[in-house]
Specification:
Immunoglobulin-like, 2 domains, 1 helix, disordered N terminus, binds copper (II) ion, YtkA-like domain-containing protein, signal
């Protein structure tokens, strides 16, 4: 599963686990990926080769400001893709991270018609950011495309991505613990369990609310922000105190895991950094 990093616009592998998934996660690769040469005509019909054109205004975003981003999804012949499936209540999900993964934002670009989506993206500081757009042309496979953007302005020192010694965090008065059914190992399916309790009283939290139609969402990136996994829960309808997600790490190394949940009308994000053994 080694793939080359090409600066600019490339499509990357996308592994997603769906509800009720039985232990397999599937990968979808863009037709631009090497394995897909240009000779798989019939096969590609269904997986719809699409391209995305990204444009920022201002062209080089500035630290401390939002930039307007437009993403147009086009077919190989340049014609816009017109219809998009709705996944988790949205036609497009956009994840924005700083290169050191310290900044994370999950946005939903608005569909403007003619294959074009628009969203304002906040860039708190200068430096490199990576954006992952996740969408599904109607009748085709889900696609994830990545774009790198350089933001001008003061750059904070990069913080190394360090595995957490302790997988319990407190966010918004909630204690969140990440546990797993077996050690993290490359290409081995693993169940991630997020457990929630009140940080003050230690009482389990049983009234989590659906966020985008599920108990929560988990986004996983490897340390270099090349490998993106968007993981959906095993049981979408639970309300806590546990939320389980099925994941499969494509390779060994350090990964950052962001869980997004909703409680009492407020969405909160809890990040963990883990190490996956070979
Ligand atoms: Cu989303």
């Amino acid at each position: 599963m080694k793939r080359q990093w090409v600066t600019g616009l490339i499509a990357i592998a996308f592994a997603v686990s769906v509800t009720g998934c039985t232990g397999m996660s599937h990968d979808q690769q863009s037709p631009s990926h090497q394995q897909h040469g240009g000779h798989e005509h019939d096969h590609m019909e269904k997986t719809a080769a699409v391209k995305t054109n990204w444009s920022f205004s201002p062209q080089q975003p500035k630290a401390g400001q939002s930039a307007s981003l437009s993403i147009q999804v086009v077919k190989p012949d340049g014609k816009p893709v017109q219809d998009f499936a709705i996944n988790h209540e949205k036609k497009m999900h956009l994840i924005v991270v700083s290169k050191d993964l310290s900044f994370f934002e999950h946005l939903h670009p608005q569909y403007k018609g003619n294959g074009s989506f628009q969203v304002n993206v906040p860039f708190p500081s200068g430096g490199e950011y990576r954006l992952f757009a996740d969408f599904q042309p109607k009748g085709a496979a889900q696609v994830t495309q990545m774009q790198t953007v350089s933001v001008s302005g003061p750059k904070p020192a990069e913080r190394p991505v360090q595995p957490d010694a302790n997988l319990t965090k407190v966010v918004d008065g909630k204690k969140v613990t990440l546990s797993f059914d077996q050690p993290f190992k490359a290409k081995k399916p693993v169940m991630l369990t997020f457990s929630f309790s009140d940080a003050q009283t230690n009482q389990p939290i049983k009234d989590l609310q659906p966020y985008l139609g599920a108990i929560g969402h988990v986004v996983i990136l490897d340390q270099s922000a090349k490998e993106y996994l968007h993981v959906h829960p095993m049981n979408e309808n639970t309300t806590g105190p546990d939320a389980q997600f099925h994941a499969e790490f494509p390779h060994s190394g350090v990964f950052k895991v962001w869980g997004e949940f909703q409680h009492r009308g407020k969405v909160f994000t809890v990040p963990f950094v883990i190490r996956v053994a070979p």
